[in-house]
Amino acid sequence: MKERLWKAVVTDRPVSWSDDKKADPEVEEWDAINEAALETIQMSVNTVHLNAVTSVDTAKEAWDALKVMFEARDNAQLLRLMNEPSSLRKVDEENIMKFMSRGKMIRDELAMLGNPVDDNTFALPVMSGLLSEYEILRTVLENKKVKLVMSDVTA
User: What does pTM read for this prediction?
Assistant: First the structure.
């Protein structure tokens, strides 16, 4: 059933050479699939997105409208996440593993948004968020002649 409805999103409406919809079974079938797919999309979205999917005529138009909205949200989230590693700070009551876990969550979210960050690029700003009690570790790692990996910071 899902594959059948998806057809309305990924295919264009067949061209009908007749003014009578009933005269072309292929067009009639596509219209029925489109209607079901559009209704499914409309019933599945949050009310905040409802206007975007009710002001269109096809499931493809509804899907494209949602895609644009969610890509914009992903870009805003990506921008926020890209700035987080440099502002990540270890708090006093937090152990190093918990601190690094917070850093790893940020890195994982970046990867899920299609922007993976290599260990060295991520470890450097995270390492700067360590407190003064980790000054020796930070100095040693900053002066390594090889690229850092996150396990170096937690070692």
Answer: 0.51
